[in-house]
Amino acid sequence: MTSLKHICKQAFIKPNNKHFFLKRNIASTTLNENYSNNYDIIIAGGGIVGCSLACTLGKNNKLSNKRILLIESSKNTPFTLPEKYSNRVVSLNPGTKKLLTDIDAWRHIESARFGIVKRLQVTDALSDASICFGEETSSENVSYIIENNLLIYAVKKELERLKNVEVLYEEKIKEYHLPDAAESHVNLHLENGGQYSCDLLIGCDGLNSRVREAMGVQYLNWNYNNVGIVATLKFSEEINNCIAWQRFLPTGPLALLPLTSSMSSLVWATTKEHAQQLLGMSNEQFVDALNEALWKVYQRSNIIDRTLKAFDTLLRASNIPADLHRRYPPKIDSIDGRARFPLGFGHATNYIGKGVALVGDAAHRIHPLAGQGVNLGFGDISCLNKVLSDAIYAGSSLGNVSFLRDYESERQKYNVGMMAVVEGMYRLYRTDFTPIVLLRSLGLQATDVFYPIKKMMVNQASL
């Protein structure tokens, strides 16, 4: 029924008029045969999301006869798995892992290395409130910790096997000409003089997207007075390292993401001033500061402590089970590879236009405190892949706005909701104002003891 609806909407004719679609497909095929620089789909940007999108579309049976071009400005650098772990990692939810499995990229990661999170424990440094998701003994995983460069390598391995996907490296796009009402193709001009055209241009070119700029859409964005510090950590002893710890400090959240039995990846969001101090320290001084941040008992309000104890007593009297198995993070022994990156928020008011769509960071940017940034991008990939399949099945052009609007509607509905939650958490935990600390602590404790709510949160974050 959905396809029938789209056919009618796209053609404005009766559903049984097949000649319209046949003529359209023949015209498209002829154009592709006559002009080698014309593609059905061109993807601008070959990072994690761009490569994964190209691979996903290339392996879509309904798009098997479509020509796809991926344009990336950086070099195609050969990858060899280094002995040291990279300090840039991503946390992939089960939905993203499934997509990578479906395109056969996960097998390359599995044969290399990755960390598993079976339990996520979140604590507030200004109270005893905490919440936990998952269990160490569970067969289900909360997320997977993968190095950025390994993830790109795994996807590129599968890209190399696809005959309908071409990749141009070290090429920069000079300008875009998007179609108006009378045109049906997108035209691209490269800095080297090359010219290309396509039915559908997909912008995967990051937070400073040139494709988004060419679309002329409004972009709501701001930078936080925070930066993220990343590093690879080594513990003083080996442990069953399958827990991700996150502690909300007065200056920002700090997270440890498991890699091996003795190593984790650090993501520490803090103020610019504090970050400058931390990066100016020796490794030994930084380790001391990190251990202090994980264990320090901050000055607390007696009102908060008394209220939380009373709330805990009420829960016990009501026979509501509380999580009595709080874990404590291991002691950090050494670090490697400190670096920093800026933090900010961004969202495009529109993800699509005639013959163009935005995916990943080109459409949205989010604070890393929930580890959902790249997962939102992979959610975009899954949705767009399905929408384009529907368009092909209906005999429509790939750049048809009526189909692309389904992608925009579904993804904005999910992305805006997730971004609002993360933004709310960031603002809720950036203050030490006693009434706010009390409110968030009670909310955290209440959520922790009600399993259905936690399960719903996990399911939503796993999409």
Automatic annotation (TrEMBL):
NCBIfam families associated with the record = Ubi-OHases (TIGR01988)
| Pfam families, sorted | FAD_binding_3
Supply the Gene3D superfamilies for this chain. Answer: FAD/NAD(P)-binding domain
Protein name, UniProt field: Ubiquinone biosynthesis monooxygenase COQ6, mitochondrial
Q: Oligomeric state and partners?
A: Component of a multi-subunit COQ enzyme complex.
Q: Which family does it belong to?
A: Belongs to the UbiH/COQ6 family.
Q: Which domain of life is it from?
A: Eukaryota
The compartments listed are: Mitochondrion inner membrane
Q: Listed GO cellular component terms? A: extrinsic component of mitochondrial inner membrane
Q: What is its EC number?
A: 1.14.15.45, 1.14.15.46
Chief site of localization: mitochondrion
The record lists the catalysed reaction(s) as: a 2-methoxy-6-(all-trans-polyprenyl)phenol + 2 reduced [2Fe-2S]-[ferredoxin] + O2 + 2 H(+) = a 2-methoxy-6-(all-trans-polyprenyl)benzene-1,4-diol + 2 oxidized [2Fe-2S]-[ferredoxin] + H2O; a 4-hydroxy-3-(all-trans-polyprenyl)benzoate + 2 reduced [2Fe-2S]-[ferredoxin] + O2 + 2 H(+) = a 3,4-dihydroxy-5-(all-trans-polyprenyl)benzoate + 2 oxidized [2Fe-2S]-[ferredoxin] + H2O
- Kindly list the GO molecular function terms attached to this UniProt entry: 2-methoxy-6-polyprenolphenol 4-hydroxylase activity; 4-hydroxy-3-all-trans-polyprenylbenzoate oxygenase activity; FAD binding; oxidoreductase activity, acting on paired donors, with incorporation or reduction of molecular oxygen, reduced flavin or flavoprotein as one donor, and incorporation of one atom of oxygen
